[in-house]
Specification:
about 15% strand, alpha/beta, disordered C terminus
Length: about 375
């Protein structure tokens, strides 16, 4: 098995230079760096990661803790994290907190005990134990997708990255209102999550912008899951005056809502219009095709890695929160006819609904 000394002889440099190239511990001239990398490739040299970590106090590994890794949204985020980590020579250790605050703290401790250099975490709705642990042990961490209230937790040391939630949700509501809907329901996510709060805020802003009153009876919590959305949608449709349009606040809840609509024999958009937060790979395979807000999921993952590496390079830098824009994907479940697919920031109505809301059903 070739050694670092073999690489140094082949490249015509010192062992120390090979170490600097492989560990990134000191700038090396481009032609020298390339000679080392060529020698590594030619000899098939594999660095001893354990030995390197003892020298540098770094394992070049990142801990990733996200719930529902089977969810297409988080799967794409994971792909972004993985690509960003590999690009910079880092490996990933992945754990699923299952959106349970107690288990969340345990899996983060598990990752920390494996000496990851830092963590990327999508926190639960009650992250007090998580934040306390990370703060106590000074673990470099980026919160992903779901933000924490730094002031409420008495900390300002964590970087955070998420997509915009409020304005895109308002856009869905105003689009439905522009098509004539006056009773627009919202299937919101798990209480306590920042994404849930922000999408409810966006829903209310959308109603206000459209001149519609807010009716608490039109907001139900689907707890960010398909099963929860089934229960919530059924309750919403069982009201004295059910909504004529529906906004679902994530892709899992969209599936649950659609299942209930099908079971009740309601067509979309003929009987009820539907817009959803989260676009996903098969959203345009449904009939009708789903009008959705698309989040930049892979870029969120990649951005989280960049922020974590920045934190590792400069531990004392001020914490920052980065929000990435979403895009409106205009399809037909809202009641508009077919049109070329793509981002449509204006969300202008493309035509009349298949069925207009009944008069006298204003909120």
């Amino acid at each position: 098995m070739p050694t670092m000394a073999d690489v140094a002889r082949s490249a015509g440099v010192s062992v120390a230079t090979v170490s600097h190239v492989l560990n990134g511990t000191r700038p090396v001239l481009p032609h020298t760096r390339q000679a080392v990398l060529d020698a590594v490739e030619e000899l098939g040299y594999t660095p001893n990661t354990l030995a390197r970590s003892l020298v540098t106090s770094r394992t070049r590994s990142i801990g990733l803790a996200v719930s529902a890794v089977s969810n297409p949204y988080f799967t794409e985020i994971l792909q972004g994290v993985e690509a960003g980590a590999l690009e910079h020579g880092y490996s990933l250790l992945i754990a699923d907190p299952h959106d349970d605050p107690g288990h969340e703290r345990k899996v983060v401790q598990f990752l920390h005990e494996r000496r990851v250099d830092g963590m990327i975490v999508a926190p639960s709705a009650a992250p007090r134990e998580l934040v306390d642990y990370l703060t106590r042990h000074a673990v470099p961490t980026v919160f992903l997708d779901r933000l924490i209230d730094a002031e409420a937790h008495g900390t300002s040391s964590f970087d955070q990255v998420c997509a915009d939630s409020a304005e895109p949700t308002a856009l869905l509501v105003t689009h439905l209102a522009s098509l004539g809907h006056r009773r627009i329901g919202l299937v919101a996510g798990l209480p306590g999550l920042s994404t849930t709060r922000e999408r409810i805020t966006g829903y209310r802003h959308g109603l206000a912008a459209a001149g519609l009153a807010h009716d608490e009876g039109l907001v139900v919590h689907g707890d960010s899951s398909s099963d929860g959305a089934e229960r919530a949608t059924a309750a919403l449709l069982s009201g004295a005056v059910p909504p004529t349009a529906l906004v679902t606040a994530n892709n899992a809840m969209t599936i649950g809502a659609l299942r209930v609509l099908r079971e009740r024999g309601l067509s979309v958009p003929g009987d009820i219009a539907l817009c959803c937060f989260d676009d996903f790979a098969w959203a345009d395979l449904f009939s009708p095709r789903l009008t959705a807000i698309a989040q930049p999921s892979r870029e969120l993952g990649a951005q989280a890695v960049r922020m974590l590496l920045d934190r590792l390079a400069a531990p004392d830098r001020p914490a920052r929160t980065v929000r990435l824009p979403c895009s409106f994907v205009h399809r037909t479940s809202c009641g508009c006819p077919e049109r070329p697919e793509g981002p449509d920031p204006a969300a202008a109505p493309a035509g009349p609904l298949g069925r207009r809301p009944e008069k006298g059903t204003d909120s």
